[in-house]
Specification:
There is one protein chain. With 640 residues, the chain is an alpha+beta fold. The chain folds into 4 domains: 5-216 and 238-243, Histidine kinase-like ATPase, C-terminal domain (Heat Shock Protein 90, 2-Layer Sandwich), CATH 3.30.565.10; 247-375, Ribosomal Protein S5, domain 2 (2-Layer Sandwich), CATH 3.30.230.80; 380-505, Rossmann fold (3-Layer(aba) Sandwich), CATH 3.40.50.11260; 508-639, Heat shock protein 90, C-terminal domain (Four Helix Bundle (Hemerythrin (Met), subunit A)). The chain is built from 22 helices and 22 strands. A 9-stranded mixed sheet has the order 1-6-5-4-7-3-2-8-9, with helices on one face. Helix 21 packs across helix 22 (624-639). It starts with a strand and ends with a helix. The model is unreliable at 100-105 and 120-127 (pLDDT under 50).
Length: 640
């Protein structure tokens, strides 16, 4: 028996203490997932050893048969999971089992809902799978030795999940990690061979390494229990999983349940995926890919610096866990694996970035994902669920991936005046199919929220003419539209910018009448210009309004109001520009303003109309007090 030395007791970080308390006292749903998480960790350890051994074959220590072993002791109420993978050093153990490290524990805790069933599904997705051991165990012992280290430098880690752990040096003949779970009272069901076998087949059948268990005789129908094995017999182990990398098998031989189980392994997600695509490509560029669209967005979706990417294999040898070179950033939510025969086995991150085949793979996989999303879009309900979770990320695509811009544009969804609801269900193909005869542009309005967009005075003429307008309210929309120029030969037009041109939708008679009306208000425009010149660049007659007295319009290349607000909130400088003030010649207030003889009152009325136009556009007044004072003065005059 080995002697333990350098024994010390250490405390968990605060977040881990909270997590352990949660595991022990709250998460009773889906207790069985602890085995899935520990087997997954063991598989990762084996893959890491195989990769490091490409350059250092002596790390195998004469044993290259990588596997995972599960055993149990009913009397002692223990379950043991052991692997002969890379193992851990003393520093590794403290970092990965004792501190928050890179586990994402803090984000896990902040994402809890209070619903036990939903919260338990977060385990693994945040890299806290090891701690799920404490759902069923009141003590966990870990014995581990890193491959290549002396037998005497093994480590024994132990904890009861109560805020501290002990760590000591020990001896361990074989490399890798052995985890011993001392089951809680009432959790003895897991110290059972048939129960453990069923869990392995349910959750981990797709693991590429054999999960070994001691052979047990199957109870016959007329026997209450199997005959006990001889006490002194050498236990004989057998693989209880298929131990074949799922992506290497033929699609026709794989059930949906197997695809779903594999997704949960590679993504650490408890939910089933929305869709997946499994493809094998042969020719100049040979590769196999298995790509998944998740059902829910990950907690760090909007952190563009967060680790992401596919699991990379080269000729079935694991190379990298999060290879981000194979998909563009706007597809960072895609999970899965890619296995290529065209990359060097000694590939490293630095070499990978320079390998020309990486660019070819990236292009091929990107198109594969876009085709998968296009297929998903044919299922309206599923695609609506996808869009709710990932739509804003996909909107980054047209600017980032010009080569696939048209494909991405077909996948975008918007709210519009046609539906009248905030649901983003209108595609650009839908819009084009409903365009008026003679309509040459795709019209849209960008606003801070749906109600502001829907109520924009700029839409009045479009409602009158029955022309559909897209209602854009996501924070990214203003930036995205600044990168777009056309779709299906139709240019995009912000209805709040530039001169209104409805093309052939308006008759020549209507255009001539507009010109005549503008001439009649020339004197009013000349009076307004000096009054409002500090705040507007131009005053002109509008034909885009039917109900409102006035509106603000931006110049064609001015920054949109939404983008301006975002940049100002971020402390960024924005161009100092002035809007155009357009007045509706048919509105009674404008006609009354034209007849106002008192210049002071004329100025007050002009400023009130200007401020109201600013508010209607979703703007914020620079001087709300002055607006209120002018309005109160007018009300007093009317009530006198």
């Amino acid at each position: 028996m080995s002697t333990e030395t350098q024994k010390e007791t250490l405390g968990f970080q605060t977040e881990v203490k909270q997590l352990l308390h949660l595991m022990v006292h709250s998460l009773y749903s889906n207790k069985e997932i602890f085995l899935r998480e520990l087997i997954s960790n063991a598989s990762d350890a084996a893959e890491k050893l195989r990769f490091e051994a490409l350059e250092k074959s002596d790390l195998y220590e004469g044993d290259s048969d990588l596997n995972i072993r599960i055993s149990f002791d009913k009397d002692a109420k223990t379950v043991t999971i052991e692997d002969n993978g890379i193992g851990m050093s003393r520093e590794d153990v403290i970092e990965h089992l004792g501190t928050i490290a890179k586990s994402g524990t803090a984000s896990f805790l902040s994402s809890l809902t209070g619903d036990q069933s939903k919260d338990s599904q977060l385990i693994g997705q945040f890299g806290v799978g090891f701690y799920s051991s404490f759902i069923v165990a009141d003590q966990v012992d870990v014995f581990t030795r890193r491959a290549g280290e002396p037998i005497s430098e093994a480590v024994h880690w132990s904890s009861r999940g109560e805020g501290e752990f002990t760590i000591a040096s020990t001896e361990k003949a074989g490399r890798g990690t052995r985890i011993v779970l001392h089951l809680k009272e009432g959790e003895e069901e897991f110290a059972d061979g048939w129960r453990l076998r069923n869990l392995v087949r349910k959750y981990s059948d797709h693991i590429a390494f054999p999960v070994m268990m001691e052979k047990e005789a199957m109870p016959s129908a007329d026997e209450e229990e199997a005959e006990a094995p001889e006490q002194n017999a050498t236990p004989e182990y057998e693989a209880v999983n298929s131990a074949t990398a799922l992506w290497t098998r033929s699609k026709s031989d794989i059930k949906d349940e197997e695809y779903q189980a594999f997704y949960k392994h590679v993504s650490h997600d408890y939910s089933d995926p929305l869709s997946w695509s499994h493809n094998k490509v042969e020719g100049n560029l040979e590769y196999t890919s298995l790509l998944y669209v998740p059902e829910k967005a990950p907690f760090d979706l909007w952190n563009r610096e967060a680790p992401r990417g596919l699991k990379l294999y080269v000729q079935r040898v694991f190379i990298m866990d999060q290879a981000d070179q194979f998909l563009p950033l706007y597809l960072r939510f895609i999970k899965g694996v890619v296995d290529s025969n065209n990359l060097s086995l000694n590939v490293s991150r630095e070499i990978l970035q320079k390998d020309p085949n990486v660019d070819k793979l990236r292009s091929a996989l990107t198109k594969r994902v876009l085709d998968m999303l296009n297929k998903l879009a044919k299922d309206t309900e599923k695609y609506a669920a996808f869009w709710k979770e990932f739509g804003q990320v996909l909107k980054e695509g047209p600017a980032e991936d010009y080569a696939n811009k048209d494909k991405i544009l077909k996948l975008l969804r918007f709210a519009s005046t046609h539906t009248g609801t905030s649901e983003q269900s209108v595609s650009l193909d839908d819009y084009v199919s409903r365009m008026q005869e003679g309509q040459e542009k795709i019209f849209y309005v960008v606003a801070e929220n749906f109600n502001t967009a829907k109520s924009s005075p700029h839409l009045e003429i479009f409602r009158k003419k029955g022309i559909e307008v897209l209602l854009l309210t996501d924070r990214i929309d203003d930036w995205m539209m600044s990168q777009l120029f056309d779709f299906d030969g139709k240019s995009f037009q912000d209805v709040t910018k530039g001169e209104l041109n409805l093309g052939e939708v308006e008759s020549e008679e209507e255009k001539k009448q507009q010109e005549e009306t503008a001439k009649h208000l020339e004197s009013l425009l000349e009076r307004l210009k000096p009054v409002l010149e500090a705040r507007v660049s131009e005053v002109r007659v509008t034909h885009r309004l039917t109900d409102s007295p006035a509106c603000l319009v931006l110049n064609d290349y001015d920054m949109g109001m939404q983008m301006r607000k975002i940049m100002e909130a971020a402390g960024q400088k924005v161009p100092d520009t002035k809007p155009i003030f357009e007045v509706n010649p048919e509105h009674p207030l404008i006609q009354k303003l034209d007849q106002e003889p008192d210049e002071a009152r004329f100025a007050d009325l002009a400023y009130i109309l200007l401020d109201q136009a600013d508010l209607a556009a979703g703007g914020q007044l620079e001087d709300p007090a002055a607006y209120t004072a002018r309005l109160n003065k007018l009300l007093l005059e009317l009530s006198a």
